[in-house]
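Consider the following assembly input.
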Amino acid sequence: MTSASPAQRSLLAARRWRAWEPLLWLAAFAAPLLLPSHALIVNEIAIVALFAVSLDLVLGYTGIVSLGHAAFFGMGAYSAALFAKYVMPDPLVGLAVGIAAATVLGALFSVTIQRGSDLTRLMVTLGAALILLELANKLDWLTGGADGLQGVIMGPLLGRFEFGLSGRTAAWYSLTVLLVLFFLARRLVESPLGATFKAIRDNRLRAMAIGIPVGSRLAVSYTLAAGLAGAAGALLAQTTGFASLDLFEFHRSADVMLMLVVGGTGWLYGGVAGAVVFKLMQDALSAMTPQYWTFWLGLFLVVLVLVGRDRLIRPWTWFGKGRRP
Amino acid sequence: MSLAGSPDDNVLSARGLVKRFGGITATSNVTLHLKKGARHALIGPNGAGKTTLINLLTGVLQPTEGQIALEGRDVTRLPPHRRVRRGMVRTFQINQLFDGLTPLETLALTVSQHRGLGAGWWRPLGAHRAVAERCDQLLEQFHLTSVKDQTTRVLAYGKRRLLEIAIALACEPRVLLLDEPVAGVPAADSREILDILAALPDDVAVLLIEHDMDLVFRFARRVSVLVYGELLVEGDAEAIARDPTVKAVYLGEEARG
């Protein structure tokens, strides 16, 4: 670019890659090799990170509060599992089916979040997830009901890589899907369309006053995020070979919201960071105190909110007035 | 009262606007025409229905009766964002900004949206050369270049006020509704805004809603006086300034209040 305008330079500089980003992704992909016994948790983290990125798109970028994001996670999981069981076991085709099903569901539900206040949206999204939970429970001839959908056997990835017991293939598969979708999401939030989402988040009245079709943009954001959540759900069903009612449960929606609060909304990596912290804490704490780990998690959240994330990760600011050393 | 004004003559025509909320008539048979390049002020005491009238014109509220036409085309039933695309743009009395974005991002997204690029999701904001150059112009014109990369949340009030008006200009209005543009601006900063108002493009019709009589009579060539939802009188600025009825209902009240 020879003589970019100052505005163009400024706008494009803001989206440059930071030095730590490739390192982070390299470390993630190296983890199943370096820590083979932890491949399963790497897989889990990649999946919930994708789920949290999806919620960030809705909550952090568009300002839609949702307590029912698990609806799309579960939809993706059940669709992928059913597809593998009854149609064909190829993971990538199954992933596409999971994404498509959740996207369609998101488009349908997007009608319900275009009007009303934040409180009505909380209720509506919560209700939608409950409806799906009950459907999955009642349609037991298809979903296995309360027993879950069992006997899902996945074929090898790309016809070559089997999902072994070590979980390494699973971890790399989930990480790759996360990577691809993360950068698509990033492309989106840095585009004019993404900017209009942020405009709606910050000031709906003004967004309308500059010609943004607010209702349809909300629908687009919600639908795309539903697709991402569906991908996360599909990955979970495929890599565990199992789908259960638990996927639709309220705690899934609440946990992913917590992860986003931990990592910070509105910067995509917040979901990833939150997922890493949340899952590692869950893993470590439940190993120490299997019954009371949620106590410590709760304590951490209270401290996080009271002290503030910025101060918590800068211990040198805890005592005295000194800002930075 | 002449209702005939040929379509190409009037950029904005509102005819016989009525808005009733239950038993209360907030706007009663208001007719307003703005020609290309008009500098028109709308004044009236508090509660006269100025805000309701703006909401009717911009499409936030639907009139109970009456029609609104933009450049000869009926827009009475169009939703607000479609009217913006046709050139009806407003500013707000209380700043309505995107606090999490920078002034540059705000203007870039507004210009992109206005040029039909608002749904593009692959190319980044700022990739379009023409959009970026328009942003540079606007930042320069509104004295925002020095703060273009700061978060809007932290800007001083005067800069926020300038951005408020810059956003509207970024939509390339045919009709610009300015709702008390200098409200709350410290005297030191109001000069900047007054200069900008004076330099608004000649082909844009401006409707100024204002309490500050100095500004009204300096800026507007025509003035409409709204009282209890009705148009009391409309005329040239000099005539309005001398009109005894206007003095009685409006200027008198202003002097007292």
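The radius of gyration of chain A is 20 Å. Ask yourself how this observation constrains the way the partners meet.
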